[in-house]
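Hi support team,

I've been running sequence recovery on a batch of backbones for a student project. Most finish fine, but this one hangs at about 90% for roughly twenty minutes before it completes. I'm not sure whether the input is malformed or the queue is just slow. I've pasted the structure tokens below so you can try to reproduce it. Let me know if you need the job ID as well.

Thanks,
M.K.
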């Protein structure tokens, strides 16, 4: 999901700075600032953007609200079968999934991404006193008949990214940034003037597999003077959509342990299936299970397992998920052929896998009436 959210973030991010230790980079960025609106940006405090997003067969509205001085931000998207939000308040990186659950992100890759976002959103390319960074001129690159200047920027605490600036118009053409898995490129186009500032009203983000590209079209941009104190903080917990039968505080159920994998019975809308339980795993069902439940997956997002192989992932909503006496309602499930990503599991253990649950179930019950995975009737294979 982070791929989709990064595309949302970059629509207004690519605004360069004048101050840089490399004189050539400083000159290019100064020209870019003038082309983008110059002093019209100096007094901006908060920016709100509404947009339309399309990716992998999913489409819907998105929003972005950011502090142009500190870089704090919050972004939302609702693509039918997939919705959520993410943000950074200057200290905490967070994400909200389709069920409304919020997870604090602590991994280096996620924090570096947030720092880069904050750097771009606060326009430090123009205002070097807002945050430290290393800026250098990385040369010229031809693109057909055009010449592009490449400026390499590494914010303190973040990671390196390249800003490609059109040598004739001095508008931002693209940004390339490598995360822990891949190189992503975001192209900007359809620049329009909004209160004297040039804004890219269209963007396309790609990792090279074009069928998974994310297209974003801006619908409106407004500049605001104030924001609530909690505007960028993690949102409150969602309305309770889970529980344990009879109001109990615990539930007990059997599982099977095979090759260190936990198998248990899960009921989806009343129908029993054998699932793998993985505390780090998201809700997943196979296309066969989705068909049996009369569910139609939406979209075809790029998904990957522990290796380099990727597959198309759709999304659907299951009315009710039950494990023992525990239940959860209106749960979002990824729909994917597990053989595409986890072929070794079925090959080694010789048993079909109908789906995976884990993280989202545990997250729902975390610090609430505890879901105890006891195994008085466990059978080891």
């Amino acid at each position: 999901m982070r791929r989709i959210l990064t595309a949302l973030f970059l629509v207004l991010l690519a605004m360069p700075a004048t101050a840089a230790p490399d004189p050539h980079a400083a000159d290019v960025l100064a020209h870019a600032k003038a082309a983008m609106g110059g002093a019209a940006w100096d007094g901006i405090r908060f920016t709100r953007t509404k947009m339309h997003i399309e990716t992998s067969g999913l489409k819907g509205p998105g929003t972005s609200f950011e502090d142009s001085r500190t870089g704090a931000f919050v972004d939302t998207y609702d693509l039918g079968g997939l919705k959520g939000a993410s943000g950074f308040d200057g200290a905490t990186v967070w994400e909200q999934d389709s069920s409304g659950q919020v997870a604090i992100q602590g991994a280096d890759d996620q924090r570096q991404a947030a720092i880069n976002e904050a750097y771009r959103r606060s326009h430090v390319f123009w205002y070097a006193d807002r945050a430290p960074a290393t800026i250098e001129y990385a040369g010229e690159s031809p693109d057909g008949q055009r010449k592009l200047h490449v400026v390499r920027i590494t914010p303190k605490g973040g990671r390196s990214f390249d800003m490609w600036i059109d040598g004739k118009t001095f508008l931002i053409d693209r940004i390339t940034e490598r995360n822990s898995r891949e190189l992503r490129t975001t192209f900007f186009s359809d620049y329009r003037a909004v209160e004297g500032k040039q804004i890219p009203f269209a963007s396309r983000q790609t990792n090279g597999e074009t069928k998974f590209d994310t297209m974003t079209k801006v619908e409106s941009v407004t500049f605001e003077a104030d924001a609530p104190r909690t505007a960028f903080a993690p949102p409150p917990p969602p309305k309770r959509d889970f529980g344990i039968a009879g109001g109990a505080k615990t539930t007990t159920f059997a599982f099977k342990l095979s090759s260190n994998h936990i198998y248990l019975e899960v009921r989806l809308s009343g129908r029993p299936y054998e699932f793998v339980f993985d505390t780090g795993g998201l809700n997943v069902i196979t296309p066969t299970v989705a068909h049996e439940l009369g569910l139609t997956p939406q979209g075809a997002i790029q998904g990957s397992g522990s290796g380099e192989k990727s597959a198309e992932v759709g999304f659907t909503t299951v009315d009710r998920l039950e494990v023992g006496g525990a239940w959860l309602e209106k749960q979002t499930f990824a729909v994917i052929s597990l053989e595409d990503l986890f072929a070794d599991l079925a090959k080694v253990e010789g048993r079909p896998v109908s789906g995976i649950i884990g993280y989202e179930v545990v997250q729902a019950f975390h610090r609430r009436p505890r879901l105890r995975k006891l195994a008085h009737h466990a059978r080891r294979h």
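--
Follow-up from support: It reproduced on our side and the slowdown came from queue contention, not your input. The longest helix spans residues 23-36. No action needed from you.
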